[in-house]
Amino acid sequence: MASKINIEKHSKYFFIACFIGIILLSVFVIKPYIMAIVGGILLSYIFYPLYSKLKKVVRSENLASLLTACIVVILVTVPLLFAANALINESLNFFHGAKNIDFSKVGELFPESVVRNIEFDDELRNMLNKFSLAVAKQTSDFLVTFPKKVLQFFVMLFIMFYMFKEGKSWVEKIKRHIPLRESHRKNLASKFNGVVYASLYGIVITAIVQGSLGALGLWMFNVPSPVLWGVVMIILAMLPVVGAFLVWFPAAVYKLVIGEVFNGIGLLLYGLFVISTIDNVIRPKIVGSRGKIHPIVVLLGVLGGLEFFGILGMILGPLVLAILLVFLSLYLSDRKR
Which stretches within 198-272 are classed as H helix? Predict the structure, then answer.
């Protein structure tokens, strides 16, 4: 009997060791494609309503999945390629034009006691040179890793195709095996839906609208490289407190300093009444009461997410922190019981 028990124990430990080992090995196998997998799952979740509508029309899961995946690819890649092309052209125009700008006039914006030992012209030119070198390095790195990115893109497309087809049944199986109360599972699913909705539509789309309107304003009031600064405003608009203000306000002040009064005042008014207010108009309508994300969570989530996950971190960062807060609230509610 004792030997039988020992055999059972050894079998149990052997199974656990093998299970942990195969998990670690699997992580190393899929590690280069983790972001492609996460991206495919996230995009399939976002565009699942479109798949459901297409499936009713074509009455074929395979065809509906393929069509939806192709539509997602078009919706994502075409704007990115257009923006990348415009950004490269605007960057070249900006750096070429920046050589002829007299940056010394910027020092007139500050008290003499502050700028006495600062050469604004040299400092700003050094900053531009460093920025141009950083852009060149990023472009070079992208070209080197381009084949790998194509492969990751294919993996993401493959994941989307099967997630549209079978994702719903997979999610139901996972939900049934989560060791939580039914009320906790519903709370977790509701928070997940709300955070994704708020992150994608409330943060990303609002920032894109704000940055696009900002680029339009810069173009109207004759600010160089409006597309380049529009992209910068999109990034800044995703961060609470900071916002697109850091781009359009200095541009308006500089226009006033160099004597372009009409452009300076026009950009200042446009920034105050269009760029800065559109956020308060769009975000509440898009998000409503579904997100309920505290600004601190958004700020830390976006910044940390961008560093850890890359571009998908704008959504994944706040999502991870928000789910952490859900688990903390579930734990505290159980402690009270």
Answer: 206-220, 226-237, 245-257, 261-270
